[in-house]
User: What shape does this take?
Amino acid sequence: MKNTRNFCIIAHIDHGKSTLADRLLQITGSVTDRQFQNQVLDDMDLERERGITIKSHAIQMDYVKDGQKYVLNLIDTPGHVDFSYEVSRSIAACEGALLIVDATQGVQAQTISTLYQAIDNNLEIIPILNKMDLDAAMPDEVEDQIIELIGVDREDIIHASGKTGYGIEDILDAIISKVPAPKGDPNKPLEALIFDSVYNSFRGIIAYFRILNGTIKKKELVKFVNTGKEYYGEEIGVLKMGNNEPRDTLSAGDVGYIISGIKTAVEVKVGDTITSVANPCHEAIDGFSEVKPMLFAGIYPVDADDYEELRSAIDRLQLNDASLTYTLESSAALGFGFRCGFLGLLHMEIVQERLDREFDMDVITTVPNVQYLAYTTKGEVIEVHNPSGMPEPNYLEYVEEPYIKGTVITKSDYVGSIIKLIIDKRGMLQDQIYLSTDRVELKFEIPLGEIVFDFYDKLKSISKGYASFDYYQSGYEKSKLVRLDILLNSEMVDALSTLTHFDNAQNFGRRMCEKLKDLIPRQQFDVAIQAAIGSKIIARETVKALRKDVTAKCYGGDITRKRKLLEKQKKGKKRMRQVGNVEVPQSAFLAVLKLD
Assistant: This one.
């Protein structure tokens, strides 16, 4: 156990975590040339296409130094703010962290927030300056930023390049000399923390765990503390590249997996404790913080008969993505579905893609919303996740919406346009700190609902990709919110309703009507698209009817012959409007998100 090291890699998005992990795996011989491909730990097609890490990946490496054999357990983590929950779980299973900073870009907002998380968990931080092979690298400037951030000595910062392999051996030496060996007593009662799980259609659910105390044996009867269920550990082992390696026993400090034939996703909870039935521990380990969804959207099957299949697909996806939460919901327009909680818009997009690719599910996603608190005239407080759950205006006293404290780090050239963006989104600038002559940190407070849609994209385009953004929720404040409904032929489509600020409602309603006019296919009758607040209509567009030229067969003769045919057509259209209903295509639900 004294030769075991558990560490994770933390960094801002695109600072070269996965490439550095590739080199570590190659130098320790954990991956053969035949298995190797770039970003070898990113095993999802989606991760490779987008060039981002979505899942944490745990892997065990063997390394020999000075004649001694060391076991290194590496956990590669995502860098995007939407997957920060994955990072918090990885940090809970480690004693050390490699803090990777891009030598061409310097310290960015996400680096800082993840770093503080690691420091709170008392991890040993090893700072690494990556991408040193690039001409644009600014080692001295970035070293100053790192020293200011964590107060290390200049010679402790390792220069490396994930691409060329420069400095990788120094990193391995630093891991062995600086990261403490896991503490824990193999003779105490078993305590193991589950930090991830995956579904295998042949073997059931595979849970990944880190043993804090005690020893686990193959075929031993174990108990999951929070769910209270007992299972036989049919197979236990360590996580190796390409295929897992079964073992007979694992003890304190080890990271491994257990297969016990569990078939239902509800029985395995990330953050749960595994203990032995024969010699149980007294209390569960403090798991990691509960996930707090930032935004909610409805997910419905395109075909109502697929409801049960969608349910089992979301169940399995939740095993692999613990930050996804869901409850049942029904809508007049779309039937039965689920109200899902996500950590951000990218997270929502990825979940939708994964449902499509991994489970072959066609789904419709409604307009996302954040959680509001509605205070009624009776003195009740209602949590509103869904626009249709908002009480009617005559019963409503006031509404509070969630606010966040945000930090943007950017080059000083873009400060003016970023401040304008913050103010346009109803934000309040609180502080402006010059970190150096051309790097500025802006601190501000802004409603969460305003950053959900396109804040991040606009920020990136304004700053030519330089600005980095991080935030945490700060509480609720009173706000003038209204429910904007969309009516098609005087019938409300509840899936298109949104909660928005009163000042933005008119503009938003008008743009939504214009967009829907382009997307709703023409019918045999006129379709009126209206935006309404309560009973007041604030915008309207009309999709004109498709009309057959019924007078084409009349040539010559009296005008009354044409009039008679037109009247007959008019009656038919009227009758049709009473029975016809308007199909809303999936593209219309998505277009609402991308109004700009």
User: Anything to note?
Assistant: The chain has a mean pLDDT of 81.
